[in-house]
Please model this.
Amino acid sequence: MSAQAFQKIYTKISQITKATCSLNATGVGYDELAVIDGRLAQVVKIAGNQVTLQVFRGTNGIPTNAEVVFLGKAPSLKVSDELAGRFFNAYGDPIDGGAPIEGQEVEIGGPSVNPVRRKQPSELIATGIAGIDLNNTLVSGQKIPFFADPDQPFNQVMATVAMRAKADKIILGGMGMTNDDYLYFKNVFSAAGALDRIVSFMNTTEDPAVERLLVPDMALTAAEYFAVQKNEKVLVLLSDMTSYADALAIVSNRMDQIPSKDSMPGSLYSDLAKIYEKAVQFPTGGSITIIAVTTLSGGDITHAVPDNTGYITEGQLFLRRDSDVGKVIVDPFRSLSRLKQLVNGKKTRKDHPQVMNAAVRLYADAANAKTKLENGFDLTDYDERTLSFAKDYSEKLLAIDVNLDTTEMLDVTWGLFAKYFTPQEVNIKAEIIDTYWPKEK
Amino acid sequence: MATKGVVNGVIANMVTLKVDGPVSQNEICYIETGGDKLMSEVIKVVGDSVYVQVFESTRGLKVGAPAEFAGHMLEVTLGPGMLSHNYDGLQNDLDKMTGVFLKRGQYTYPLDNDKLWHFVPLCKAGDKVAHSAWLGEVEENFQKLKIMTPFTLQGEWTIKSIAGEGDYRVIDNIAVLENDKGETMDLNMIQKWPVKIPMVNYAVKPRPFKLLETGVRSIDTLNPIVEGGTGFIPGPFGTGKTVLQHAISKQAEADIVIIAACGERANEVVEIFTEFPELDDPHTGRKLMERTIIIANTSNMPVAAREASVYTAMSIAEYYRSMGLKVLLMADSTSRWAQALREMSNRMEELPGPDAFPMDISSIIANFYGRAGYVELNNGKTGSITFIGTVSPAGGNLKEPVTENTKKVARCFYALEQERADKKRYPAINPIDSYSKYLDYPEFDEYIQEHINGDWIDKVNELKTRLLRGKEIAEQINILGDDGVPVDYHITFWKSELIDYAILQQDAFDDVDAVTPLRRQETIVNRVIDICRAEFKFEGFLEVIDYFKKLINVCKQINYCEFESDNYNKYNKELDALVMERKIS
Model:
């Protein structure tokens, strides 16, 4: 983007910090874009004639007499069907060597959906992973993050979910993603022959941090185009939202705002909610589902970023390495999908909710038995059986390499119940036991 | 002439204006930009500079944009026609808005001025009336709503004329008042009220004492809330705050339920929109939506309106209380409201209090909870607002300013616990940390003795003691091992587990178990207490575990059966037989 004819050019910058520049200017709108010394910037504060700009690429080398031109519009994206199959940077400019997109220019970070115009999500998204489909079923229009330590294979799981979910479009928003992971996604998508369904907005670790503030809004503006205009089911992948929050903290720090918990800005909740709440089921059939990643530091979910995220999203998924079976599993205790009851037992077999709860309860008993064992106490026969059950359950259902449909998952669980327990021990409604308890052959 | 101003500065939703005349704190003004009028509220005045918080996005707003002051504070418009409506935090009717997306500067009228209401007068010409007097009534969704004299009316007035029974619109004149100076006043069915001012239009506010049934066993039995009481539900995310709130709002025995979805997920509001019109009110058999009003300011809607939303909801509740109705107000979540205050305080560069919240957060919370209550009106009738707020403590840590300050003022505390939620023991209300101060009220004791039975409170306290004892023993068993404690300890522990499984745990998604009427709660409490008081004979702890698991299983089956149905009776017999097997006295 460059200056056009007849635009007023300012050349006197009065203040420069690491991320912002201030100058005297008139007729400037809040949130408006400007170009300063060839770099894109956005108005973040107006006080009389003094306008403060946040420079996305950083202010390194900007002279006080740099040329500043205001563009008279907020950050925007040109949307059309041409977006499909393309890779962009945080500004929405192509980075795949292709031609710029022609289409309608839409301001990003647009208004929210009127809550009374939303439809209750009710379509199951099958992933084949039992730790998700059985225990934490995903529903279209849901927003859910993976809470994971940086060393866990969240990007691989996310890519698997994206490929198996039957989405019309997959929009990948990368914030501070390593270049290697970016190439990994690109390879997975192209190997699956899915490139024509992908739109990608990428800010890698090689790009300036503040730029990534634009990525979620860019991705979601594209998603809204396909979901609203084309009634498509859109899956948005955002990785990693902790990097996004770090960028927010940098900007708020430069603006001299008083930090709240963990040096994060006081508005963190609202900032994150504005992004996640774009997940929606429209009555016309289109939907936006958001699967994000929030990296944790040493599994600490009380840090401001995972904590605020947990209050906004409809559940969270935890990955954990189970040392007993040597596989990465979806943790059944800490993971939760809040929308699962909209489909469990309704779109899936009716024994689903009870089977799921009973299995997790028995798995919890196994965890208690394990504590007893570690503390050197004798185990009861029941304890021994729960431990064997837990091992099978981890291996055959919770592991992320499982690929079953939900009915198969339920049958496998019933099989495990019958192998290790009596019907009284699983605490399930009698009529369901009567129907589904495996009969002796 | 209205005061005017021009924009002089913008930071996010805080705007500074230069003004040319008098303004008052909290006055409403409208800033014009690009053809939209943005509603704002004055939050600070310094000379001719006025700081306002804008209830909308300020994108594109420029220095020099004109603003006009409205001359009043943020108000609600009250009248018949609000039930089953969905409003935003500023009482705009969301259903009247056009388009899928919310448009900036779109304000819609909360009432319907064309609809006819069948008015029945309750007064006659010549009657003397003061403020908030009941002039007549109309029926909305099978509720009798009162049409009242203005809440702000000063002194005593005489009814000069009043409309006869018939159909009128809310804007039609239904009465004329005259005072002793000969001044007259025309009244219609509409009232306006500034939301941030408490409506103190009642005679006295006695201590509340009547149980408010919610059908949730761990509330009604263990820590009951009363009509006009206050309670709060703190809990980390994922512990079932929202499910519990929805259960209470579905099942509580109230005339009017107002749900303020304050800075929470839009899909949760959608769940209410979708389900409530289908669900029956367990007390009247009518549809739940008919008694419900939703104030939705979801987390992605403008932050300043989030603060307004809880006040809007409270003012509407006060309006219905003035009619002598039982109102239940739920706010999910008050933490989001406090965060909205924090965001503004930060932008105004005020010195921060604990966790960067504003210094006066404690008095703001206390004053808000103080607006709830059971009241006697000037005409001797009673009305109530029961208020239950949820709190979302950062990091699940209850030692944070919003939780601590709420704990000082709310009388019931329902602590949701991560550990219980992880074990899928729902509702995850910790039975030991939670409390209801109403259990200590002699007024409540007297009421419960008349309605349930004489030694109810003793039984409740016995349950609590047994749960505490069970928890202590569980810790000892963890340290000493199953063999390291006497068999008696195992029996005591498993009796507390029976209380947990049969009374505390409740399946909110099961048609029968979701709601337990008081009489059924009494039955199950008596059964469980009888078992707990009985002596059993066991050879070893394995027998104890095995036996109590069987008891628990039968009790759960009972909870799943329709009350006093054939299956219910069958399982009860099974339970009797099972108890007799081992009981020695």
